[in-house]
Structure formats: structure tokens, C-alpha cells
Amino acid sequence: MKTLVAAALIAIAPAIAMAQTDSKPAQKAAPKTAAKAPAAKKTTTTTAKKTTAAPKKTTAATSSRTQLKSAATQVASGFIAAEAALSPAELALADTVVTGHMPCELGAYVDVQKDPSSPGRFHVTGKNFKYHMQPVATSTGAIRLEDQKAGAVWMQIANKSMLLNQKQGQRMADECMNPNQVAVAESMKRNPTPGVLDGLNTK
Reduced to 3 states, what is the DSSP secondary structure of residue 145? Predict the structure, then answer.
């Protein structure tokens, strides 16, 4: 009986050894699979960092646009401030400008009104035109308003006013008068100014 048991054990021994050998690689393989898990975490973390970095670029671009708008606003404000600054002499001339609705020859009219938002300047309007003018000193004593961009000039003397377009080289309106200028014109007709040759002995 003992002989038969020993022979059976000898026969089974190779199978037991092979089973133990096969089970060891299976146990070692598990850690390798588990070791790959951290690599996936690293990839996820890197992707998250890249995703969160995108808003920084958008914020920088927005900040740049804001700075450009602010600079443009400051430049525009500078131009407005420069335009608004008239000299004391120009402001004094502005006080002598005749304002109101004035009929002109050939049925035309010109309306001169002070610009409430820009002291010393005037809106000069009529049929098919509108100018923004400011006073300019002259050597003749005539009161002169100009819109330099449009090339328009408003000339005022004691008995009348006229509107000129320097770019076109023509008068747009003439013999424009307010009531005071009408009175002066009538007085000049009744009492004409003596000419240079009046009073001289021509014999």
C-alpha cells in the first residue's frame, strides 16, 4: 500500500510544480497593470493645466483692447479741449457777432446762432448748408467767422453780412441784414460818405 501511495505522489509532483510556476507570473502581472494608473493621472493633470491657461490669453486680449479704447478716448478728449480753447481776443470778437435769422438777397437767408456747448463759436445755417464757425481777427475791422474744414467764411460789416465759400470761390449769400444793419444801410443811403474826389476843384 505504501508503495502505491509513493508512486502516486511521484507521478503527481510534476503537475503540482507546474501549477505553482504558472501562478507566480499571474501574481506579478497585477502590479504592472496597477503601475500604469498614475500615468493616466499625470496626463489628466497636464490637460487640466492647459485648459485653465486659455482664459489668461483671453483676459490679456481684453485688457489690450481696453487700453486701446482708453488711449483713443484720451486723444479725442485732447482734440476737444484744444478746439474749445479760444484766445481772449477771439472771445472778445465773438461778442460783436450779430446773431439771429437774417434775410439775404434773392430770397436766401442765413441763421447765425451761438453754440451753447462751445463758447465763442457759432452755428451758421441756411438752405443746403450748415457750418460750425469761430471768430478770426482781421486787419480791416470786419468781423470774420470761419469754418476752416469746409472753407466757409461769414463776413459781417456795419450795414450787411455775406457768406463766402473759399473752396469754390463764390458768394453763397449776400446783402444779409438784421434790423440794425438795415437801419445802418438806410442811413448810408440818405447820407452817403463823401468820395475821395468830392470837394476838390476840378476847374
Answer: strand
Can you say whether the dihedral through the CA atoms of 113, 158, 89, 140 is positive or negative? positive
pTM score, two decimals? 0.56
From residue 27, give the alpha-carbon distance in Å to each of 24, 34, 36, 77: 5, 12, 16, 80
Confidence tier at 141 by pLDDT (50, 70, 90): confident
Instruction: Please provide the DSSP assignment of 65-117 as one string.
Output: HHHHHHHHHHHHHHHHHHHH---HHHHHHHTT---EEEE-GGG-EEEEEE-TT
Instruction: Residue 86: count other Cβ atoms within 10 Å of its Cβ.
Output: 17
Q: What is the Cα–Cα distance from 182 to 177, expressed in whole angstroms? A: 6
Residues near 114 by Cβ (< 8 Å), separated by ≥ 6? Answer: 94, 99, 121, 122, 123
Cα separations (Å) of 138 from 67, 95, 143, 185?
44, 15, 7, 22
